[in-house]
Amino acid sequence: MDGAVEIIDQTVLPKEVRILRLHTVPALVTAIQSLAVRGAPALGVAGAFGVALAAQVHADDPAALAAAVERLEHARPTAVNLARGVRRVAALLPQGPAAVLAEACRVRDEEIAASEAMARRGADLMIELCGKRSRLLTHCNTGALAAVVLGTALGVVRELHHRGVLAGVIASETRPLLQGARLTAWELGRWGIEHRVAVDSAGPFLMARGEVDGVILGADRICANGDVINKIGTYSHALGARRAGLPFVVVAPESTVDLNTPSGDVVPIEDRGSAEVTPWSEAVNPAFDVTPRDLVTAIVTDRRVIRLDQGERP
Ligand code: MRU
């Protein structure tokens, strides 16, 4: 990091691959809030490097440094990774900018290693649950864009493709910002994985009609009781999967497991306001929802498989 944090601007994909070089914490906070950088693990890494940036920019101004760290920590409220990444790296501030940067690099490297571990473990589980020619439905974007490399749920999808046991993917479009239609479809296309996009409301019907063998998606926060917070629309897919008797699998790194949050009803759900939904009316726009633990078959992390359907808890 030479005085800037570099990100791929996810707001302009798939039309354009644009790299943003962010030289200030306010610019990074704006990038986080506009979803130029998004996805729980990527937010943790962005927050970590944001603190490293702040440590360089405000080396001689402790009050400005503290304010910058505070702004980063609260830039978005729901994914636990952001606040966690910020706080972890900020703990090194008394040791100076070099120590802070080294810790930020460790946060990034751990997420990279976590993606690889989740892909292997998740693929083993999906073969066990869905068989050797599975058609999977996924929601939002959980690929390399959301997790630095490879991804969480989408990393598992890619691993299944490499093992030759994937029979197709449905990416639900993910209203209103279309992370599925724009980002997941783009990543699957680059990986050469056969896929189709479906409107969000089609998911449960496609499951009922027998066109899906399992649902696999990510999380922004996993609560101590197993409740899963993820992109709005996750809960409907979980209900559809339960009704159709399909496995519903969540893939997320340990950095997304938040044992300090007892259950989903106390998680702050970001409300992104009307403009993203419709110009014609006031809208209600919760960016995330809570999927109760009893609808989740299993959670795969980089260290374990938690079988909620067998009574296990995070
Ligand atoms: O609002 P976003 O796009 O940041 O929401 C992201 C999601 O909900 C993802 O599904 C989740 O972070 C898992 S990312 C690996």
Automatic annotation (TrEMBL):
What are the GO BP annotations of this UniProt entry?
L-methionine salvage from methylthioadenosine
Kindly indicate whether the keyword Isomerase belongs to this entry: yes
Q: Which GO terms describe its molecular function?
A: S-methyl-5-thioribose-1-phosphate isomerase activity
**What Gene3D superfamilies does the database record attribute to this sequence?**
translation initiation factor eif-2b, domain 1, Translation initiation factor eif-2b, domain 2
**Statement: the UniProt record of this protein carries the keyword Isomerase:** yes
Cite the entry's keywords alphabetically: Isomerase
UniProt-listed Pfam families: IF-2B
Q: Which NCBIfam families match?
A: eIF-2B_rel, PRK05720.1, salvage_mtnA
Similarity comment: family membership: Belongs to the eIF-2B alpha/beta/delta subunits family.
Q: Which PANTHER family match?
A: METHYLTHIORIBOSE-1-PHOSPHATE ISOMERASE
Query: What's the protein name?
Result: Methylthioribose-1-phosphate isomerase
Species of the source = Paractinoplanes toevensis
Q: Which gene encodes it?
A: mtnA
